[in-house]
Specification:
alpha/beta, Rossmann fold, 2 domains, binds adenosine-5'-triphosphate, P-loop_NTPase, ATP hydrolysis activity, Cell_div_FtsE, cell cycle
Length: 229
Amino acid sequence: MIRFDNVSKVYKRGARPALDGVDIEIEKDEFVFLVGASGSGKSTFLRLTLREERPTSGRIHVLGRNLSQVSSWKVPHLRREMGFVFQDFRLLENKTVLENVALASQVIGKPRHYILSAVPEALDLVDLSGKENRRPHELSGGEQQRVAIARAMVNRPKLLLADEPTGNLDPSTSVGIMRLFDRINRQGTTVVMATHDDEIVDQMRKRVIELKAGRVVRDQARGVYGSDR
Ligand SMILES: Nc1ncnc2c1ncn2[C@@H]1O[C@H](COP(=O)(O)OP(=O)(O)OP(=O)(O)O)[C@@H](O)[C@H]1O
C-alpha cells in the first residue's frame, strides 16, 4: 500500500534532512501510528505519501504506483484514492455538514446518484445522521472532526492518512474518534496516523513506527507510544 525505499527529504540545501534514509512498508489493511518528537518527520512522511512534497532521494510507492513516475496532472487522480484528516478539521464554515461532505464528491465529478447514496452513508459511518443541516460552528470539536472524517471517507478511499486528528480534542472525545478510525480500518481501509496521543496509542496496541530526527528508530507490532515502557 505504501513503500518507502531509502527515502530522504531535505527541504533547504544545507539543512538537516527531515527524513533520512527511511525504509518503511505498510501493507493493505494495516493500522499504523507514526510517533516521535515534534520535528521528527511525521508530517513530512504523510506529505510525501500524498505527493504534496517530493523526496530528495529514494523511491516511494503508494497504491501500487511509483510516485516519481506519476505526472503532475495525474496527482489529483491518485489523491482521490486517499482520504486525509487534519488536526484543525478544515471545514467550510458557511456550508452545512451535508454540503461539506458532498462537496468532496462533487469536486471530483462523481455522478449525482453516487453522491445521493455515498453522503448519507458517510454521515451514518461517523454517527452524524440527523445533523446534516448544521453548520460547523453549531457542532462540538469532536463532531466537527467526525464531519472531516466523513468528508475523507465519502469517496471510499483505500488509504486514510491523518495528521494529529485528536490534537484539538479532549481525552474522552479523542477516544471516540479513535474508535471511529478503528472501525474504518476494520471495514477495510488502511489507516496511517501521526499522533502525540500517548494514552490512545498505548490503549490501541497497533503497529507503531517511531521517528527520531528523520530516522526510523522503532517499528513495533502491537506497540506502545514510548520505547521505554
Ligand atoms: N516546508 C518546510 N520547509 C522547511 N523545513 C521544513 C518544512 N516542513 C518541515 N520542515 C522541517 O523538517 C523537519 C521535520 O518536520 P515535520 O513537520 O515533518 O515533523 P513532525 O514530526 O510532523 O513534527 P510535529 O509533531 O511538530 O508536527 C523539521 O525540522 C521541520 O522544521
